[in-house]
Design a protein that fits this description.
Chain lengths: 281, 44
């Protein structure tokens, strides 16, 4: 679907539209950093215009034991409003059309190599456990001598952070090389593994590990933009299931939280039974 | 359900702005995050 590709390209530049770093070697710190990006895009990337919603959840969590709770009321509601807005309007449409890291994974999948896009047992459990542990529980529970927690997902896992923030900042600010330690090598190894798995398996990171996709996935059933099935037209020929890159049981599970709304099923359906619906409140 | 969640969204946005939640977001997102890069903090 050509239009999706173009939207993804535009969205990637929209997420990373700051070119001032070429002059200053500094990250953007202007007005737009008051807002969360819809997709996974590290706010420490030199060209990032918005803040990363996942990074902000963790920043909020590590502050819980340090800052007075009254000063966290504002950040809590402000962050909640972003997740509710993106989830209720688009859901995982964001993953399929707007997320820069999702687009990066799709580009990787185009590399000619051995392909096996099947899902495996326990991937949902792994994703939920990883999110609960690395985004919520560990940042709240484990604190440093200064009293602050650690951004566990960002520090030890996030491949977007390693690629966008780590390597790009090291390139533009070589004095940071002295800060390289074992965690950086660990994250680089993890990034290389994820890249390889994304070449083999379509959007491997989205399927197995992305906490943002997991959160948006729960909104798929109730988001304004959603897919619907006209059962009268559908003979259950399963053509849609055969082309689904996320390997979802279609057309039964059109509302699946794994659906990234790529709309390939809608396009191939010969009976026009699958519709993109923009529902009312 | 959807209406309630939209109402919650508007309430959250209003409370977030009222209690200056954006300042927290801006202050954290405007500095290079050493953790995100996987680098070690300076000891001094």
């Amino acid at each position: 679907m050509r239009s999706r590709k173009w939207v993804q390209i535009v969205s990637t530049f929209f997420h990373n539209g700051y070119l001032g770093f070429l002059n200053t070697s500094q990250i953007y710190n202007g007005f737009l950093k008051n807002f969360c990006a819809p997709g996974l895009n590290c706010h420490s990337c030199p060209s990032a215009l918005f803040c990363c919603p996942l990074g902000m959840i963790q920043n909020f969590n590590i502050s819980l034991r340090v800052l007075p709770l009254t000063s966290l009321i504002g950040p809590f509601f402000y962050l909640l409003s972003f997740f509710l807005f993106f989830g209720l309007t688009l859901g995982r449409f964001i993953c399929g059309w707007l997320c820069p890291f999702g687009f990066f994974q799709e580009l990787l999948y185009r590399i000619p190599f051995y392909k096996n896009s099947s899902n495996f047992k326990g991937q949902d459990f792994f994703k939920i456990s990883l999110t609960l542990l690395f985004v919520f529980i560990l940042p709240i529970l484990i604190i440093s001598e200064l009293g602050y927690g650690i951004l566990w997902f960002c520090k030890f896992f996030c491949p977007a952070g390693t690629l966008e923030a780590g390597y790009f900042n090291l390139f533009f600010q070589p004095f940071l090389f002295k800060n390289i330690g074992y965690v950086f090598y660990l994250k680089t190894l993890l990034l290389l593994m994820i890249i390889l798995l994304c070449i083999i398996n379509f959007r491997f990171f989205c399927k197995t590990a992305c906490p943002l996709g997991l959160i948006y996935g729960y909104f798929n059933r109730i988001s304004i933009v959603k897919l619907t099935l006209e059962e009268k037209r559908c003979p259950f020929c399963k053509i849609c299931e055969k082309v689904c890159p996320m390997r979802i049981s279609l057309p039964e599970k059109l509302d699946s939280k794994e659906c990234i709304r790529c709309l390939i099923c809608l396009k191939v359906c010969p009976y026009k039974a699958i519709k993109l619906k923009i529902s009312h409140l | 359900m959807k209406k309630i969640l939209f109402l919650l969204f508007f309430l959250s946005l209003c409370l977030g702005i009222l209690f200056s939640g954006y300042e927290f977001i801006h202050s954290r997102a405007s500095i290079i995050c050493i953790s995100c890069m996987g680098l070690e903090e300076d000891e001094e």
